[in-house]
Amino acid sequence: MKKNALPLFVLLLFTAIGAVVAVLRENRWYFPMFTGIGAMAMVTVILTRRYPRLSQTIRLIQLSGLGIFLFAGLSLRLNVNFQFPQVIFDGAAGIVSGALVQLLIARVTVPLVFGNGFCSRACWDAVAFELADQGWKSRRAGSGKKRSEWLAWGYLGALILLAVVVSRLHNPVYDDEARYWWLIGENIWIIVFGLGLAGLLGRRAYCRLLCPFLTLSGLLAPLSVFKMAPVNAAACTACSLCNSACPMKVDIMAAVQDRRRIRDRQCILCERCADACPKGCLRITAGNPLQ
Ligand code: SF4
Ligand code: SF4
Ligand code: SF4
């Protein structure tokens, strides 16, 4: 992909999404909101290329900026509850709201292009997890278990069951105040529970082991256009620094040695592995979604 094509593509993609959502939702605010998201992402791509040594700092600034922007702008301003049970609440009430639109964009459309990139660039709950990582980095680096699909799907099933029961008892979609407190309460739960898990089980433990959004987008991530890929595999010394740097426990060293792109459901495109590699063996590349 040509030098300026990726930043421009990112801007155009989000602008187009904003235009479609604004029409579908009959709310013009979605257009500037998504265009703003695209502009932020575009600036991040440009800055990361210009200052590669600062790529993690730039990514964290983007994550914080976008995460807070989405939570304040979409959740609080437009009253779109971004968490999973909201889709069930809306479904039980027979309405289509921004929660379903968000699910379709962030967990179906975007993953086909950027995999689980939302998790390293835009998730507001991840802001807390990543900031905690900074303090726990040396102690917890390389620790933690890989995701068990049984556990992850079990958690998603339990969440759906809980949402169905709540929607039968007192569906928050009919009550603005209840809806607002679900929105706040769910995010507080994820952050507090996630930080507790991280303290016990290592970095990004909630994301790595349980998050229902990753369970869904992980199904499509192997088909994304952009993936981590070996670009200088011949130089790999099997030092395993990339594997130790990965918060999601992806065996990226094996992929480099097999000279294949990362098709792991867990990869969140955070580029920590690429930054940890002393030989410059890794980079995000665009390519055939099937490879
Ligand atoms: S896995 Fe879930 S909590 Fe973690 S960053 Fe992704 S969406 Fe956010
Ligand atoms: S493989 Fe690399 S980009 Fe993917 S989650 Fe692990 S460190 Fe991040
Ligand atoms: S950090 Fe680089 S050199 Fe070391 S194992 Fe990973 S890809 Fe190979």
Describe this structure as you would to a colleague:
The chain has a domain of 64 residues: Alpha-Beta Plaits, CATH 3.30.70.20. It is 66% helix and 3% strand. The chain has a two-stranded antiparallel sheet. Helix 3 runs antiparallel to helix 7, helix 5 crosses helix 11 and helix 7 packs parallel to helix 9. The longest helix has 26 residues. It binds iron/sulfur cluster (3 copies). One iron/sulfur cluster binds next to helix 14.
Oligomeric form: single chain
What is the rounded distance between the termini?
Answer: 17 Å
Report the order of strands and helices.
HHHHHHHHHHHEHHHE
Are any ligands bound, and if so which?
A: iron/sulfur cluster
- Beta strands, count: 2
Uncertain residue ranges: none
Key features?
291 residues, mainly alpha, 66% helix, Alpha-Beta Plaits, binds iron/sulfur cluster
